[in-house]
Amino acid sequence: MMMPFDQKMERRLLAGFVALIGILATLVVAPFVALAAEAEVVNIRFGYYPDKVLVVLDLKASTAFRIETSSDDHIVNLMLGNVKWLTAAKRSLSAMLPLTAYSFHPGGNANEGRLELQASRPVTVVRTDTYPPDRSHPTHRISLELRVKPAQAAAVQATPAPAPAQAVAVQAPPAPAQAPPVQATPPKLMPAAAEGGGTVPVFRLSGFRSAAFGMSERQVRQAIGKDFKLGDKEIESAQHPTEKTTVLGITVKDLLPEGGDARVSYILGYQSRNLIQVNVGWGALAGTKASMASLIVTARQLRTYLAGSGYRPDTVITDASLSDGTILVFRGYDADNKMAAVVLSGQAVEKNGDASDKVAPPSLQMSYVSDAKEPDVFRIRPGMF
Fold first, then answer.
1. Domains with residue ranges and CATH for the chain
2. CA–CA–CA angle 202, 203, 209 (5° rounding)
3. pLDDT digits over 74-118, tens only?
């Protein structure tokens, strides 16, 4: 009678032993299985904002990371643990705002790596975020927000400007806020007395191509016809709803090489009815979708051109961040206080990695203004009410 009992006990002990071996095997093997799982980086994206750059990594799994920066703050290293890089390992970036290139470098362990972000100016990482997959994004995400260091941003204004930066944002013009001009002809230089005798060249802004400040509407239409071979029917006319100025608008293809469509607006004063300003706009201002990278290229071309034209050095500002988030690419006054300004605005991609937070599309505006301080526009003056 004892044999069956012993056999049962033996079977139970054996089953328990097998179960214990299974538990131990799970405890020992599981960590190695976890370590073998790689967080594959499938894409890297960049968001160009007027005052920052957003870097977003798309991964198939989450992973630990840390940030390191170089002593001069021109390099930001994103140290990634246990990753496999599946997208482009390096790339140059067309960016006026700080980031210029990135490269991925595997570490001693094939599953470890370093993402190096190179900047043209000292930058700081002001925020890092991680996001799990959701309906809009099937991947995990790591997001870095980079900004130019405050001290560097202040240093951009190398020379003091007589007028506050906001006034530079081109306040004079019309309803369809257009902007940049591109003078095909070289700037006109006129002699002025130099301190030690003789003369020095002084630049005077006279208008845009054949359209000169002070021209009547008829003369401006003739200038447009001469410059762009357009008739009256191809020139749109509108009145600014609040400033009561008249705006003559045209769309020009490839005003600058590979610049895309540009919207040119000629603004006639409220009282004088003569030309007081010319705006040229790209991107959203021209009714087209343009990438921030392409607008940055155009902005650089305009900045280089204007910086060498001869505007008074004590009035020139370049690459300054304004309070509304736009970038004042260039602002300068000529010898007669006529102003040229280039403003880059809008955001190109997601905010904090979320496509649902998109804001104003990118645009570039450049303006030639005959009198930025006292523009000929309608205003309610003291005593009218």
1. 39-153 (2.60.40.3500), 161-369 (no CATH)
2. 155
3. 899 999 988 889 988 888 765 445 677 899 998 765 567 899 998
